[in-house]
Design a protein that fits this description.
CATH class of the largest domain: Alpha Beta
Order of helices and strands: EEHEEHEHEEE
Helix content: 25-40%
Number of strands: 8
CATH topology of the largest domain: Alpha-Beta Plaits
Shape: elongated
CATH architecture of the largest domain: 2-Layer Sandwich
Number of domains: 2
Number of helices: 3
Strand content: 35-45%
Structural class: alpha+beta
Largest sheet: 5 strands, antiparallel
CATH superfamily of the largest domain: Protein of unknown function (DUF541), domain 2
Length: about 210
């Protein structure tokens, strides 16, 4: 067996699968000459966002408050404060894509609210990754058998198998326009973007003695 001929191959698999998650960010902002007024408005607008997200469960799987910012705006010529700004950003993860468009429109219709997204993705433990790995191994075995057949031989054993990488595309951004507060909220349909998943392995197989000549 130690002196048996060896064939080395690379197996690859590529799939495009439906996304499992959609993420977007919603940012409530406020501005006023008075600091307390700014904070009060910011708290009210953030609370309004929370009410809409509460109503969207269980379509909303997760929400995380990110950056909270409050800062003064000063005159260029000095330190005199002319206004205060505030913002708070929440990252929202949605699993029910049928509710996604309506939720984003409702949020965008709130006063002084900014949206970005959605970004489509797979779960870290998605079955799509396992299926791609299995397909890459099957591809490696098929290639080894083809090479062996071309030599009049057959694959006899696996010597080594190495995972050279599993990758997926970076999150994809879909841009959409929204109505300003006070206008009629439009209907918004979002088309989930397929997620490319690619796996590759390198394998070495022993083969029976080739028939040459």
């Amino acid at each position: 067996m130690a002196d048996a001929p060896v064939v080395a191959v690379r197996g690859e698999a590529y799939r495009e699968v439906a996304p499992e998650l959609a993420r977007f960010t919603v940012t409530a902002t406020a501005r006023d000459r008075d600091r307390e007024t700014t904070l009060t408005r910011l708290a009210e607008r953030a609370a309004a966002v929370r009410v809409l997200l509460d109503a969207a469960e269980p379509a909303v799987e997760r929400r995380e408050t990110g950056q909270l910012r409050v800062w003064p705006e000063t005159k260029r010529s000095g330190e005199r404060v002319i206004a205060y700004h505030g913002s708070v950003t929440t990252t929202v993860t949605v699993v029910d894509f049928r509710a996604l468009g309506e939720l984003m429109v409702r949020l965008a219709d709130q006063e002084q609210v900014e949206l970005a997204g959605p970004w489509w993705s797979l779960r870290p433990d998605s079955p799509a990754y396992r299926e791609a790995r299995h397909a890459a191994i099957a591809d490696a075995l098929a290639r080894a058998r083809e090479y062996a057949e071309a030599l009049g031989a057959r694959v006899t054993a696996l010597v080594e198998l190495a995972d050279t990488g599993l990758s997926s595309a970076p999150p994809l951004l879909a841009k959409a326009g929204f109505a300003r507060a006070g206008e009629a909220a439009p209907e918004l349909e979002l088309d989930p973007q397929p997620q490319p998943v690619q796996a590759a392995v390198e394998a070495r197989f022993t083969i029976s003695e080739p028939v040459l000549g």
